[in-house]
Amino acid sequence: MIRAPEPNEAALPREDGLLETGGAWTRVLAVASGKGGVGKTSVAVNLAFSLGGLGKRVCLLDADLGLSNVDVLLGINPVVTLEQVLFEGVPMERAILSVGRNVDVVSGSSGVSRMAELSRNKRTDLVREFHKLINYDYLLVDNSPGISAQVVSMCLACGDVLVIVNPEPSSITDAYALIKVFKENGLHRPPLLVINRSLSHQRSQAVFERIQKTAENHLGVNCRLAGIIPDDPALYRAATRQTPLVEMESASPAAKAFRDLARRLDAAGRDSANLTRPEHFFDQTVIRLQQAPILPPGLAGSGRPPVSGELARRLEALMRRLAANSRLLAQTDPEAARDTEARIEDVRELLDSLAAGPQAATDAGSLAEENAPDRTDTPAPAPAPSLSQPDQKAMVICPDPMWRAILENILEDLGLELCPLSDEAAAIQPPDLLLVRQAPSAGLADLLAAKGDRPTLYLAANHDQAARFAALPAKEPREILTMPVELLDIQGAVCNLLATAASRRRETPHLAQHDHRP
């Protein structure tokens, strides 16, 4: 992995006049996610230990905004953090903590977001400090969840970016939004996608293909699938015991998947195009921060505000106490221990969602509500069959352009022709199906009425929206899916609706009179 510099490479001039130290090269990988709660830090930690198991020297840099999830997952209490290196003149070597064979950690803090404030002289000093990381084969940068100036700057300064995504549509759209912002700020290498908490290989492959198709069609970005990590109960046990899964239960399905991911990444990253210098990564991060990355409306400046240090410390302390209690309970009450493990995961998702901002916190609240013990689950639709009538039409009612693009791609894959909302012909020949992702309102009810009584699939953000959709008058069959759902569930619901409508027409001939097609 480490190669000697090319002739005269160590003395390359720099346009900004800062020191270029030269020396060995490292593969710098960013780990990011469009939202919190997708298991980003768990992937980063287990990937670091898997690479270490291959004999690679790895430094895991915790660049989260003061939430130190790496510390919690590994059960460590660092004395020196990256903030002290950046702003207090502490040498980098004092912040490096050995956590396993070939694996070291540099703990982060909220100070990471203030790198844009560094003076020119201070940057020069810190270039020398980051140069001390040149002996590592890998520098893994665990970013904050969501989209911020810090995340964008750090990710684009790395050689490669791993985007962690779950099969849930909300995670998919957030991952797409993150990739879009990367593209708008100069992304030049294909993002590498890791599908985490996968329930089936087939569904995860469909998730990747959906993101890839949308990114290629709308952004001109070609994504690559780096790996699929199965949803494995052993992950939660390892988190409770504050031990990497690949070390604690090496034979578990997820541990095997992490090792496969490490081998693929290592095999694909041996060319010099994937390598950089740690000091170059740091310098480019600062430059990008000072140039102010282009962010979506509402995220200008430094991005979402970080969680206060006091709140982060209290939540981290709670997670440590829960972990200790679970270890004690495991000896006497395994069921209570499993429940405690679930609560630890709830707290971890809360930490991530708080770091990602108010909207993510709302999403996490909805998710917690939907997973409450007393909820009534709606059986997931069966996998989508092939459509027998390729001339059928569908209309998507959705104000969010990213969601609309994904939903339209699903319908096109099923052979349905899309009707735009402005299509005047729809008044004469109503679509065969409506797919609605929009908050219930009087305007929506009027719009649905104008499009005729068609089979309708509603995607509700929460149980309250689902109840309001259920209250809308409807003659034709309908289905209501409450988030989070998977893409194949949406496909299955569409096919079920069309099949039910066709069956009703066959069984009740007079219903065909409502079909305005010639």
From TrEMBL:
The keyword Zinc does not apply. SUPFAM superfamilies: P-loop containing nucleoside triphosphate hydrolases (SSF52540). GO terms for molecular function: ATP binding; ATP hydrolysis activity. GO terms for cellular component: cytoplasmic side of plasma membrane; cytosol. Keywords: ATP-binding, Nucleotide-binding. Transmembrane segments: none annotated. Gene3D superfamilies: P-loop containing nucleotide triphosphate hydrolases. Residues 358-391 are annotated as: Disordered. One of its GO terms (biological process) is negative regulation of cell division. Pfam families: ParA. This is MinD/ParA family protein. It comes from Solidesulfovibrio carbinolicus.
